[in-house]
Amino acid sequence: MKKAASSSYTSTTNACKLCKPLGACIAFRGIEGAVPFLHGSQGCATYMRRYVISHFREPIDIASSSLGEKHAVYGGGPNLKLGVKNVTKKYGAKLIGVATTCLTETIGDDVPFLLKEYKRDVEDLPPEEAPILVNVSTPSYSGTHMEGFHAAVRAVADQVATEAEKNASVNVFPGFMTPAEIRHLKEIFEDFSLDETILPDISDTLDAPVLEEYKKIPEGGTPIEEIRRMSGAMASIEIGRTVETRLSAGELLNGKFGVPAYKTGMPIGLRECDAFFELLEKISSYETPEKYAGERGRLVDSYIDAHKYIFNKRAIVYGEEDLVVGITSFLTEIGVRPVLCASGGQSGLLAGAIEEVTKGILPESPVVRHGVDFYDIAEEAEGLAPDIIIGHSKGYHLARRWNIPHVRVGFPIHDRFGGQRLLNIGYRGTQDLLDRVVNAFIEKKQEDSPVGYGYM
Amino acid sequence: METGAQTIFKEREGQIHRKGEEPFEMTCNRDSLAGAVSQRACVFCGSRVVLYPIADALHLVHGPIGCAAYTWDIRGALSSGPELHRLSFSTDLQEKDVIFGAETKLYSALTELIDRHKPNAAFVYSTCIVGIIGDDLEAVCKRVSEEKGIPVIPVQSEGFKGSKREGYNAACRAMFRLVGMRETTGISPVSINILGDFNLAGEIWIIRDYFKKMGVEVVANITGDGRVADIQRAHGAGLNVVQCSGATVDLAKMMQEAYGIPYIQVSYFGVEDMAEALYSVAKHFEDKDPDILRKAQEVVREELSVLYPKLQEFRKDLEGKKAAIYVGGAFKAFSLVKAFRLIGMKVVLVGSQTGTEEDYRELYEITDEGTIIVDDSNPLELSSFLQEQDVDIFVGGVKERPIAYKLGVGFCDHNHERKEPLEGFVGMLNFAQEVYNTVMSPVWRFAPRKVKRAREV
């Protein structure tokens, strides 16, 4: 196997990652009654809102302490407190998730201390005027949006899940899934008669119905009461093979409260789904319901129906590390050869995870590159002769340059409709993904053919 | 429903005015209130907006990855040639850079990128963090400029040092360093620079065509479809024609002071303002070309003869509908108020992120009784006004769009992402078409707010 390498350039061109606070904001958005809050200058919040809105097509209010020049010199504490007070007053937030930015990390604001001071000041107020304050350190100069996402989830588990009585619930840390995928997860847990707490739960908060009256904070999200009792849960399931231990909410609850922590890959493709359902069988002591056996059977059936359209096609997969692993695992099963697996992330776990999900089927592991940008990806792809790329919208320019299909998965999807409703997990989601991948090849063949075939 | 009063912060009361309440007073130009979820951006954003369309320059963002990632190829600023501006370059600062300084990294990133792409100039944008760690951008840029033989210009755009306006100013100062670097021989006395047009969806090409028909030479596009060499000889133009609320007016002022070039401010949105822009330029050059006013009138007449009948068609259906406007700069708002009037619609809410007192006074003058005028607003206020005024369409940018849609209100994108030109006479037609497409869609009847109203009637 070729050793995984990171970028050999000093400059970054067309990044294949986003900054840490963005991930934290999305995670906070998945908590009931929560408002994400960035401690920094106004621009960060505005840029991220813009970026997130263009994908989800939903409002997302991210508050900011709106620091100016004098705050950068004398400290942002007063503005942080004023901002938290204002968000409490106008939004009626139950929880405010305060994430730092590169500015406030560099000037050295001690956010935990400042928030402690604030809490002391509002001690006598009734609970509706004193929301829970969670803080997470997310300087944009290290890591990616996924680190920010996991760090925020871990911070919530750390700061909200207090000592609770043992209970029969199961904590689920799904990672960055689409709202549709979270809805599917809920359905699966319900079918296993499991009482799950999914953190974060963006299924409603970032995919809400049209309203008669504007909701300051959208309905839905992980209920705070459920987060509190996570410490007494019977198990935690953390989804994603590349979540580092230092960022793992499952490990944290295991260490603090002895909640058994299970890890599983993103359930994309047969084997990762099987492993996931086996885990649920183990935890619930129920067998996988018939419904899913049916979905699994249909999926295998369609693997067979599809195989000749796609055999030995060469794919480049890029994006968030966990998603890249899931997609690669799936492609390996259907006979598409992943030739390059790339991510801007740097968990250090990507190469091992790719090896894990491809061995036994692929004769040799694909090239794996971490910490790279699209310039690196394009350079690496030279000589690989890819037939398809699979990843978010920002890789479109490569598909266009190489005149090959682009199947869109992940975040952001800015050039197609319905990114928030994509379903790639579970047997059902994998089925959907398979259909899209196969159709991408069929469409390409049909369009390139001078014959004008009406059947393919 | 919550009334406006419940959603408005006490600190912001002075930034909202309802026409009819006397006297007219408006607070503006203030720092955004912490926690109020302002729709504003930052200094970096202002600089990036202005300089971005210069297509043969290298735009290197010196900072952590976010600033470059969020501004990568998100605008429809088209180029007729090179497209270097569509790539996103960053020094992607890491923790060790923050601790030890990042001048060496900047130097090698710049060298690497200039060797790779052979740009005609490079802009190096400073971000929040660079303002704190104190990298000497000026020194690094000077060194690289000498070594590579192209202008390498630092842009003082640290995000926290103000709002977009300060970013505009930093961009103008950066561009001003280019002006004057090249020969101006051969430039016609009847010549202009187009300032403050970013060639979104090819708009500057429409405007240039009008000027061409009037016999006016365009020396430099600043900055839509912009080129370094053109800006370097921009001081040879007879007049600076400045659009947009102040994004490039500072450059015009600097050029007036240094080179004695006068400037006028115009807008290319809507029929009245577009025609007025052409007439103003014509009047300026009347002594040099006595026929120019006639030529301008000819352009306007020709365009209007096509446009008016079509607009009347739209007007039949749109008459009496209500519109809300919230945009970045107030200049765009003036034109929009007039454009809506032309298609029979009534503006009931108008606001901007960065208007001045003068701007708001003008809005007060041109709007009807009862219109709400607002500075540096936020989602809570905007949503409550939309509901209260029961509007049919909201005009704004990406961040305003979901507020409208979530309430079942039509929307017109008037932002830098747009793919349809809205400037010029043809732009007015596109605008009317877009307004029509959203207002007349059958989907609103299924939205809960309309369902409820239908039941009440």
Key words describing this protein structure:
heterodimer; A: 456 residues; alpha/beta; Rossmann fold; 3 domains; five-stranded parallel sheet; four-stranded parallel sheet; 17 helices; 14 strands; 45% helix; globular; B: 457 residues; six-stranded mixed sheet; 19 helices
Helix/strand layout:
The complex is a heterodimer of chains A (456) and B (457).
Chain A: E1 12-13, H1 20-29, E2 34-39, H2 42-56, E3 63-64, H3 69-74, H4 77-91, E4 95-100, H5 102-107, H6 111-121, E5 132-136, H7 145-160, E6 169-173, H8 179-191, E7 195-198, H9 224-228, E8 235-239, H10 249-257, E9 261-264, H11 270-284, H12 290-310, E10 314-318, H13 321-334, E11 337-342, H14 350-358, E12 367-369, H15 374-381, E13 388-391, H16 396-402, E14 406-408, H17 426-448
Parallel strand pairs in A: 2-3, 2-4, 4-5, 6-7, 6-8, 8-9, 10-11, 10-13, 11-12, 13-14
Helix pairs in contact in A: 1-7, 7-10, 12-17, 13-14
Chain B: H1 4-7, E1 16-18, H2 43-51, E2 57-62, H3 65-69, E3 89-90, H4 95-100, H5 103-117, E4 121-126, H6 128-133, H7 137-148, E5 152-155, H8 164-176, E6 191-197, H9 203-213, E7 217-223, H10 228-232, E8 239-243, H11 249-259, E9 263-266, H12 271-284, H13 292-318, E10 322-327, H14 330-342, E11 346-352, H15 357-366, E12 372-375, H16 379-389, E13 393-396, H17 401-406, E14 410-413, H18 424-439, H19 448-456
Helix pairs in contact in B: 2-8, 5-7, 8-11, 12-13, 13-18, 14-15
Task: Describe the protein's architecture and organization.
The complex is a heterodimer of chains A (456) and B (457). Chain A has helices at residues 20-29, 42-56, 69-74, 77-91, 102-107, 111-121, 145-160, 179-191, 224-228, 249-257, 270-284, 290-310, 321-334, 350-358, 374-381, 396-402, 426-448; strands spanning 12-13, 34-39, 63-64, 95-100, 132-136, 169-173, 195-198, 235-239, 261-264, 314-318, 337-342, 367-369, 388-391, 406-408. With 456 residues, chain A is α/β, with parallel strands linked by helices. Chain A is globular, with a radius of gyration of 22 Å. Chain B is an alpha/beta fold and 457 residues long. Chain B folds into 3 domains: 2-35 and 309-456, Nitrogenase molybdenum iron protein domain (Rossmann fold, 3-Layer(aba) Sandwich); 43-176, Rossmann fold (3-Layer(aba) Sandwich); 191-302, Rossmann fold (3-Layer(aba) Sandwich). Chain B contains 19 helices and 14 strands. Chain B has helices at residues 4-7, 43-51, 65-69, 95-100, 103-117, 128-133, 137-148, 164-176, 203-213, 228-232, 249-259, 271-284, 292-318, 330-342, 357-366, 379-389, 401-406, 424-439, 448-456; strands spanning 16-18, 57-62, 89-90, 121-126, 152-155, 191-197, 217-223, 239-243, 263-266, 322-327, 346-352, 372-375, 393-396, 410-413. In chain B, helix 5 (103-117) runs parallel beside helix 7 (137-148), helix 8 (164-176) packs parallel to helix 11 and helix 12 packs antiparallel against helix 13 (292-318). The two termini of chain B are 19 Å apart. The model of chain B has no long low-confidence stretch (mean pLDDT 94). At the A-B interface, strand 1, helix 2, strand 3, helix 3 and helix 4 of A face helix 2, helix 3, strand 3, helix 4 and helix 5 of B.
